[in-house]
Amino acid sequence: MMEKQQSGAGKRAVRIMLESDSGGERIVRQMTGEWFSKGRHAYLRYAEPPEAEMGRTVTTVRMEQGEVRIVRHGDVSFEQTFVPGRRHYGYLQTSQGRLELETFTRTLDVAADGPGAPLAVRWSYELSVMGQAPESCSICLTAVPVSD
């Protein structure tokens, strides 16, 4: 799994599909990005597409078996960590203000063999925004290398 990756492995262009279900609302987005590894972590980086309405924002997803961390920089800032059976606190910062996020991750599956192979990450969690009642969410993130 992640242990197979070489430190400093080259970046690969990938086609990304992100499917999310939050409170019964399903969103599917497709974009391009890059996938690379550093140490025991695999990284996926992409610019948020216009339909995400995040302006000029770049998302980095850091993955290892048992943990996913998402960081966004740009017009929108966001940080959140997902570990099965654990509660984590994060935030979403926009021009309208900052929202405190709390997640409890139920499931997480990271399937990857390195930047030259397909990647599939699935997780489900409970999300509470600013102390409101939590809602069930799930995400499926896949990346397929673009042929040279």
Plain-language structure description:
The two termini are 24 Å apart. This protein has 148 residues and is mainly beta. It has no helices and ten strands. It is 0% helix and 68% strand. Mean pLDDT is 89; it is low at 1-8. The protein has a single domain, classed as Beta Barrel (Lipocalin). It has a ten-stranded antiparallel barrel.
Name its key features.
148 residues; mainly beta; Lipocalin; 68% strand; globular; DUF1934; DUF1934 domain-containing protein; Calycin
What layout of secondary structure does this protein have?
Layout lengths: L11 E11 L2 E14 L2 E7 L9 E8 L2 E8 L2 E6 L4 E8 L2 E16 L6 E11 L5 E11 L3
Antiparallel strand pairs: 1-2, 1-10, 2-3, 3-4, 4-5, 5-6, 6-7, 7-8, 8-9, 9-10
Gist of the model:
The chain has no helices and 10 strands.
User: Could you report the average pLDDT, rounded to the nearest whole number?
Assistant: 89
User: Which runs of at least 5 residues are low in confidence (pLDDT < 50)?
Assistant: 1-8
Q: Give, in order, the helices and strands.
A: EEEEEEEEEE
Helix segment tally: 0
Q: CATH class, anyone?
A: Mainly Beta
